[in-house]
C-alpha cells in the first residue's frame, strides 16, 4: 500500500464505515493514521467524558457527524440523580468555534438546553440531522430555533425525551420555503400541536418518509395528514380515539389503503380498542411494529392485527398479548428478528400475561430471531434450555423476571443452568441481562462461554466476589458492566485494575464496595475517573474513622484521556 | 406459583363503600408478589432494598416492590406513559371515555356537565341513541344493560351506588355492558356482603 498515493488510500477508506474498523485502520501505520483522521466523517463517542471536544477536533478536524452519549444506562431507571452531568453545551460551543462543517448530531442521555440548540442552529450552515434520544433540559423554544434557522434540515427525530412543552408555535417556525423534511418525530411532546402548521409542513414536504405524531393529534387531523403524505414509510400514530364522527374513520381508512409504502407503524399513545382494524390493509407490508405504548388495546385486537403481519422483522409489544398471542406471532412472523415484550403492570399485580411458554413458542417459531427483551413473571431452566437449543443465534438476550430473586417456579432451583445454556449455545451473544434467582455459578458459565459478550446487566444476583471475578476474568470483550443490588465487593473490584482500561465503564450500585476500596482503585488507576454518587446528606463519609469500610451506594467508573471532569455536582465525588 | 399467598388477598372482601381501604389492598398485593415464600404482608419494610450486606434471600427481609428504586427496569419515559393510562389528565376536566358493548366507537363525555345520575342517564341515552341505559340506575334489575365504571384504583364498580360527588371524583371511564355479560365480569361487591 506504500506505492499508492494518499488519495487512493483515502478512497479505499471511504468504503470502511464501521467505527471499529476505522479505529483499527488508524493503528496500522503513521501514514494511515494521518489519512484516516482527515477523512473520518462519522465520529462516535460512547462516553462524553472519555474525551474533550478540543482533543476530538485535534484528532478529527473534518468530521460531519457526531454521536455522543452521556449518562450511564441505569440513568434510565432513575438511578442517576438529576444534575449528574452529560451536558452537551461545551461540545456545541467548541464545535461552533471550530471550522467543522457539522451536519449531524446524535445525542443519547444528555442534557441539552435551548441556548445550545439555538447556537447549534446558527453555527452550521449545512446542518441536516438532529437525533435526540432520552435527553432532557430543553423546551419547544429550542425546537423553534432549529426550525427557524436550519435551512437544510432533513431529520428532526425526538425519541423519548423530556421536553418542556411551551405549547408554542415551533412547528410554524419552519419557513414556508422549507421543503426538505425527511424525518419528523415529535411523539414525546406532551402539549397541544398547531395542527394547521403541521398539515402545511407535511403538505410541502415531498421527501417526508418518517412521521411520528404526539398524542395531541386527533383522528380527523391524522386522516388529513395521511391523505397528503401517502409516500410515508414510517408512521407513528399519536392518538387514535374515535370521536363523534365516523366520517374521520372513513377518511382514514381511505387514506390507509393508499399507504403502499408503509413499512413501520408505531404510536397509538391513546387508542380506542377497535382502532387497529383500520390498519389491516397495510399489515402485509409491515416490517416494524411498535405497539408498546398502546395499553388500552386488548390482546385479542393485537392478535387480529398481527395475523396479517407476515413480513414483520421487529415487534415491540406489551405483555397483554399473552402467551396465546405470542404463539400467533410465532406461527405468523417467520421473518421476526427482534422482539420486545414490555410489562403492562409495573407494580407486580400478579397478572401472568406472559410466561416461559410464550418465550419458548417464539424461539421455536422464529428462526431468524436474534434480539429479545422479555419481561415476565416466571421462568424455568427447562424453558431457557429449550430456547437456547432453538435459537443459537441470539446477539442480544435480555430477560427480566419481575420479582427479584425468583427461582425456577417448577423446581425452585436457581436459574443458573438456564442462562448457562443460553451463553453456551449463543456464540455471538453481545448483550445479556440476567434476572431471577442466580448464584455465582451463572457467572462461571458467563465467564467461560460468553466470549463475545460486550454488555452485561446484573441485578439481585450472585453470592460472593467470585461471581464478578468470573466475569471480569472471562469476558475478554466486555465493554459495559452494570451491576445493582448484588454482593460483590472490593476484592472483586480490585482484582484486575487493568481490565477497566479495556472497558468503557463499570457501574455498581447497592453492592458491597467500600469507600476505601474505591480510593485504592483510584490510586492504582489514574487513567480512570472513579465517581462516587452520594445522595445522602451524610457527608460525614470522610470524617468518621470508618471510611475505609463505609459502603458506597453508587460507583461509576470509566476510562478517560482527559482526567477529572470539571462539571460534577457536589454529590458526585471523583476520587 | 405461590398461589396461597395470592389467593388470600384476592378473595378479601372489603366492607364499606368503595373508595376506602383500597390502598391497603393494593399494597398488600404488591408485597405478596415480592416474597417468594409468600410471607405475611404485615412485614412490609419501608425503605429501599438493603444495599450490600443483607442481600440474601428476600423471604428474610421482604420489601414492598413498589419501593425498590428503578425496578422493574423500565425506562422512566415508558413508566410515565403507562401511568398516564391510569390517571389520564382528561379526568381532571371531567371527560371520561364511554364504551358500549356492541358499538365499535368509543365516545367521550363530560361528567362535569351532568348534575346527577339522572342527568348522566339522559346524557348516555343521547350519546348512544339508545333508550334505557339510564333505567339501570333506578330499576337495577329490570334493564338489559348495566352501567359500570372504572375507578381510580382500576376496579370496576356498578354505577349508581355511591353519592354523585364521590362518583365523579373517582370515575375514570364508563362502560355500558349487557347484564348477561356482567355476572362473570368480576365487579367489586356492592357495599356490605358476608
From TrEMBL, chain A:
Provide GO CC annotations from the record: nucleus; SCF ubiquitin ligase complex
The alphabetical list of record keywords is: Auxin signaling pathway, Developmental protein, Nucleus, Ubl conjugation pathway
Broad class of the protein's primary localization: nucleus
Cell compartments where the protein resides: Nucleus
Looking at the record, the residues that make up the F-box domain are 4-45
One Pfam annotation reads LRR_6
Q: Give the domain of life.
A: Eukaryota
A molecular function (GO) held by this record is:
auxin binding
Gene3D superfamilies hit by this protein: 1.20.1280.50, Ribonuclease Inhibitor (3.80.10.10)
| Pathway the protein acts in | Protein modification; protein ubiquitination
- What CDD domains would the database entry show? F-box_AtTIR1-like
* InterPro entries (alphabetical): COI1_F-box, F-box_dom, Leu-rich_rpt, Leu-rich_rpt_Cys-con_subtyp, LRR_dom_sf, Transp_inhibit
Q: Which GO biological process categories is it annotated with?
A: auxin-activated signaling pathway; pollen maturation; SCF-dependent proteasomal ubiquitin-dependent protein catabolic process
- What name goes with this protein? F-box domain-containing protein
Query: Which organism's genome codes for this protein?
Result: Brassica carinata (Ethiopian mustard)
From TrEMBL, chain B:
A Pfam family that this protein carries is: AUX_IAA
Q: Which UniProt keywords apply?
A: Auxin signaling pathway, Nucleus, Repressor, Transcription, Transcription regulation
Q: Name one GO cellular component term.
A: nucleus
Subcellular location per UniProt equals: Nucleus
Q: Which Gene3D superfamilies match?
A: Phosphatidylinositol 3-kinase Catalytic Subunit, Chain A, domain 1
Q: What is its main location?
A: nucleus
Domain PB1: start-end pairs: 93-181
| InterPro entries (alphabetical) | AUX/IAA_dom, AUX_IAA, PB1-like
> Which BP terms from GO are recorded?
auxin-activated signaling pathway; regulation of DNA-templated transcription
Similarity section:
Belongs to the Aux/IAA family.
Q: What does this protein do?
A: Aux/IAA proteins are short-lived transcriptional factors that function as repressors of early auxin response genes at low auxin concentrations.
Q: How does it assemble?
A: Homodimers and heterodimers.
- Name this protein carries in UniProt: Auxin-responsive protein
Provenance organism: Brassica oleracea var. oleracea
